[in-house]
Write a structure and sequence with these properties.
Length: about 375
């Protein structure tokens, strides 16, 4: 026996559905393929308030990672399991495929800036510029005729970009945007501080072989520099000095998933071991500190003496035990690890992954959900 719905309810269903959709605006899914797995994050807006909608860390083998069919199956299962909405994603290319550079040029009235940017890039590379996909962000967007402008340029081989996009398409995803790492991190920092703040804030992203130092003055990106310095150098130094293999060094350094990003949660033995490890890497780390100090001086010169208010650490080295305390001890600015989901509502959507590397994915997932774009 089939029961008919009341006519009045049938008439109201479209309006109820539209009201529900209007009440919950879902952003794209931030997704990143890393050595530890596939990270996914999604936010939504309810009553104009940002909430964490869903998050997941999917373990993945090299065999699965290489197969779009297997990735598609994994994503289908976990997107449904964790409550993600849609298949539109914001992501970024693997770091090894992307070259970041700063370009300076003289702004000339009546001449397209893009022409000068392309010309300056072509002068900096040996290959044919047509073989690359190029994106850029203005670092000094306000300049008068004859004044210098700076742009942050990201470029990747065209064939790598097309292969990456095709892999994602075959995995069942629709790519809304290929992101630049510093843009995603900037977006997360702006949400953390609020769009009305005017302070100088620095982010230090220490990856495998490269470190990116970024300074924001309010909503403006005023400084970006990449440095040949990374976790690999630090691990190698510790490995040689302590006569340990890489796995043993990482076991001593990297926080457990259960550890909070704060020193107060560590016992005295762990603190003693951590301090000993940092005493070994400190001379090498001071090379990076010099670049951090240069960025502070530059920021002050660009903002009429305004100092950097806070330094956020992200990426690989941000996962080390006590790293924020160590960096805080060698520079004169408060330091903390950029925790991806701190301050967002709906903590029930947060899985057990609190790795600082999730900051990049959170920033990507915020695309289109904030005033920063």
């Amino acid at each position: 026996m089939t029961m008919a719905l009341p006519p009045g309810l049938v008439d109201r269903i479209p309006a109820l559905t539209a009201k529900r959709n209007a009440a919950s605006q879902y952003g794209p899914i931030g997704i990143n393929f890393s050595a530890t797995g596939i990270r996914l994050v999604q936010f939504c807006k309810r009553a104009n308030k940002l909430e964490l909608s869903a998050s997941a860390l999917i373990p993945v083998s090299d065999r699965q990672r290489a197969s779009p069919k297997l990735v598609r199956s994994l994503l289908k299962k976990h997107l449904r399991k964790h409550g993600f909405v849609g298949h539109e994603v914001v992501t970024c290319l693997p770091p090894d495929d992307v070259k970041i550079m700063m370009i300076s040029y003289l702004h000339k009235a009546g001449k397209q800036d893009e022409e000068q940017i392309v010309q300056r890039i072509a002068e900096r590379i040996d290959d044919d510029i047509n073989d690359y996909v190029i994106d850029f962000i203005m670092v000094r967007p306000q300049a008068k005729d004859g004044q210098e402008r700076s742009v942050l340029v990201a470029m990747a081989p065209r064939d790598r970009v097309l292969d990456f996009l095709e892999h994602l398409r075959k995995s069942g995803l629709t790519v809304k945007l290929l992101e630049i790492e510093s843009t995603a991190i900037r977006r997360l920092v702006l949400v953390r501080h609020g769009h009305d703040h005017n302070a100088n804030v620095m982010t230090v992203s220490i990856g495998k072989t490269q470190t990116y130092i970024t300074v924001l003055s309010g909503r403006r990106l005023i400084y970006e520099r990449d440095i040949d310095f990374g976790e690999q150098q630090l691990i190698e130094l510790l490995r040689k000095e302590l006569e340990l293999d890489e796995h043993e060094v990482r076991t001593l350094l990297v926080r457990d998933d259960s550890q909070a990003v704060q020193r107060s949660g560590e016992d005295e033995d762990n603190i003693s071991v951590t301090d000993a490890l940092y005493s070994v890497v400190k001379p090498l780390f001071m090379v990076l500190v010099k670049d951090i100090n240069r960025a502070q001086v530059y920021a002050a010169s660009e903002t009429r003496g305004m100092p950097v208010e806070h330094v956020y650490l992200t990426n690989l080295v941000a996962t080390w035990r006590g790293i924020e305390n160590f960096v805080d001890s060698v520079i004169d600015v408060p330091v903390s690890v950029l925790v991806p989901f701190a301050g967002f509502d709906n903590p029930k959507s947060l899985n057990t992954d609190v790795d600082p590397r999730g900051a990049l994915v959170a920033g990507m997932a915020l695309h289109g959900m904030t005033e920063a774009g």
